[in-house]
Amino acid sequence: xxxxxxxxxxxxxxxxxxxxxxxxxxxxxxxxxxxxxxxxxxxxxxxxxxxxxxxxxxxxxxxxxxxxxxxxxxxxxxxxxxxxxxxxxxxxxxxxxxxxxxxxxxxxxxxxxxxxxxxxxxxxxxxxxxxxxxxxxxxxxxxxxxxxxxxxxxxxxxxxxxxxxxxxxxxxxxxxxxxxxxxxxxxxxxxxxxxxxxxxxxxxxxxxxxxxxxxxxxxxxxxxxxxxxxxxxxxxxxxxxxxxxxxxxxxxxxxxxxxxxxxxxxxxxxxxxxxxxxxxxxxxxxxxxxxxxxxxxxxxxxxxxxxxxxxxxxxxxxxxxxxxxxxxxxxxxxxxxxxxxxxxxxxxxxxxxxxxxxxxxxxxxxxxxxxxxxxxxxxxxxxxxxxxxxxxxxxxxxxxxxxxxxxxxxxxxxxxxxxxxxxxxxxxxxxxxxxxxxxxxxxxxxxxxxxxxxxxxxxxxxxxxxxxxxxxxxxxxxxxxxxxxxxxxxxxxxxxxxxxxxxxxxxxxxxxxxxxxxxxxxxxxxxxxxxxxxxxxxxxxxxxxxxxxxxxxxxxxxxxxx
Length: 562
Ligand code: C2E
Ligand code: MG
Ligand code: MG
Prior knowledge:
Bound molecules: ligand C2E, magnesium ion
Oligomer: single chain
CATH class of the largest domain: Alpha Beta
Low-confidence stretches: none
Helix content: 40-55%
Number of helices: 23
């Protein structure tokens, strides 16, 4: 686009003349957009195809809102905003316009930002219609995603009742094939799979290559008598045959996500989103399988996204909606309260109070547990300082998530926290759930060694669920083992589990650590569990988790806290 550089010294009139001339030789529509005045200049050829009205349009935004397909407008607006702010100098988007007959047209718009003669920021470029050509993918020969969008849009608008299903097919672990076997092997796999798909479906069924390793089958053939599951199984069997014929030189499997009815009333973007979700479900369920789009699972997923958004908002609003509750931990020797566990709560107007079982994993997936974990640490340390005035050796147990341990500078955080608040390390007892990572991550053992050196005590949480085993106890040098409520409940019901718990307690003791039993609710439970010889009890029997103020009133002498 050398002509763009030359345009820098031209007046607008000269530019218009130039683009009119260029226009004659090229199958695209030229435009100049003055980003400072919001003026859009284009050619007569463009006017014949798209409803611009004039070659020069001042204040073009309202008109663009009419020409651009509504769902795509925000994408365009963001891109233009970036050009105006100087974040980017190139505009390049594929999206949809309405033509003069109000038909949807996929276009590719490219442009470059230049400073014109009068000092204005100009976007100079061209709009190309994608629908006119059939952009095929070089590797598989199939049509590409943009073409799918175009065709699906038309089909959903004009003949939705004809659609049998959309099936999105993905190769399991495709990235690994590229990495381990090389890009060429990856390309071969794509070609093989494309052949398997095309040779399986009815010749009238459309097959597209959407992106990297994903394909879309769009069946809108009247009287099609095979279900999506049958078609998927056949493709999968062919893939397995091909892999065998090639003597396992490159092993791979495929998953698929199918949308059968839920596309009604939606557009191609929605089909993309819902099939992608179904494909991800198939992969999450273990790969090498097909998943039908499940509305309730999708709604659940959207709710989780919404919760994540609301929590992010609340975190930025000074942890609004978050609160730390405290539950007493009692020593069995004299039933004296020796500490408390800090338990995070979150509520919002839309969903009320949300269970930690739901919101903690969302915080972990998004990394938001790192700032929230710091908030809990500081809150707990501050409360502990206050409560130590009444009970000098009081400590607060703080739960640490693996994400905090793995992805944040935990040593720095805990050190800063006790320094800023002014409490000894022993006032915070760090609780950690073992979930298989201690074994695989050598740095973690080192981290715990450092925490011990700094005088922090560590508890192994949720013992009896998942991965817990005695070896970790030594590896992380835990001072306490917390036996999970589910295990305790089991032991109260059956003699065999009770014996196991008794042995575990003996073993923990022989390693020099102490045991805290979680979830004791009733006196009979306490009596029975006491015979197993634990050191501490935490459960509703001694107190439910409660806000700091209530905890003080209930368990600490209010007068001494003034
Ligand atoms: P956890 O660390 O094992 O905490 C003990 C859980 O058992 C708490 O559930 C507590 O309310 C519950 N519990 C205690 N005694 C009884 C009882 O007698 N009966 C019954 N039915 N339940 C009892 P909660 O507060 O719902 O927390 C659930 C989990 O969420 C925690 O399990 C912990 O893994 C996580 N969590 C809570 N706060 C935080 C936090 O600040 N950071 C991190 N990373 N995780 C947290
Ligand atoms: Mg805990
Ligand atoms: Mg626990």
